[in-house]
Amino acid sequence: MTSMLQRQKIRDTAFNNGVDLFGIASIDRFVHAPAGFHPRDIYSKTASVIVFAIRLPTESMFAESPVPYTHVNSLVTQKMDMISFDISSTLDRAGIKNVLIPSDDPYEYWDAGNQHGQAILSMRHAAELAGLGKLGRNNLLINKIYGNMIQIGALLTNVKLEPDPLADYEVCPPKCRICLNSCPQQALTGDTVIQSKCRPISNAKNEKGYIIKKCFECRKKCPHALGIRRK
Ligand code: SF4
Ligand code: SF4
Description:
By secondary structure, this protein is an alpha+beta fold. It has seven helices and ten strands. The chain has helices at residues 3-16, 39-42, 67-93, 123-129, 178-182, 195-202, 217-220; strands at residues 21-26, 48-55, 98-101, 109-111, 116-118, 134-135, 141-142, 150-157, 204-205, 211-212. One iron/sulfur cluster is lined by residues 183, 185, 187-188, 193, 198, 201-202, 215-218.
């Protein structure tokens, strides 16, 4: 199979498995990935990173109870992982070697003192490098159509594929600080999230032991939460 046919096969397989967004990043685009978190630190043969995303149902974010949003988040992570597994499996059977990356956890890096965890590959950055959107100051990927209500999956492959163009739209107006100002913990710097400040309320353990997402203000309050608003 030629590289163009392989690309088409991968794209078709992804959409046939229900993804809403798809893109490919060439390995040279990861030149700024931190040491230890580069795709080739995971799989040394990586030539391309295949990235896709599914849209979350949005209204749970506006419910007064945080439980529906917590549940949607949990389900969409599992669903993305299952879709990634099915895409990975289909491509494997077609002879296209690939390595599946978890949509969220597990991961290995954990700085207990700062309560800071880091995924083996930053899905948000991979998605940006594959043209799925741009990173906002709230540290979420913002897609033109679906906003920040998306869950990202990725596969690494040793096949050199034609990359997709990067997103050509802007997401954060120069003076917008809505997400930073709406954070009750002052956990957003504009470049990163201070996880030790965010975790206690974004992943709060209740008396029964359930983890409840009690805060997602930076996601909800963004004017582009549901897609880029046009003037
Ligand atoms: S989830 Fe809440 S606490 Fe965490 S950064 Fe966003 S607004 Fe701040
Ligand atoms: S609230 Fe404003 S600054 Fe924050 S991510 Fe959204 S557009 Fe960007």
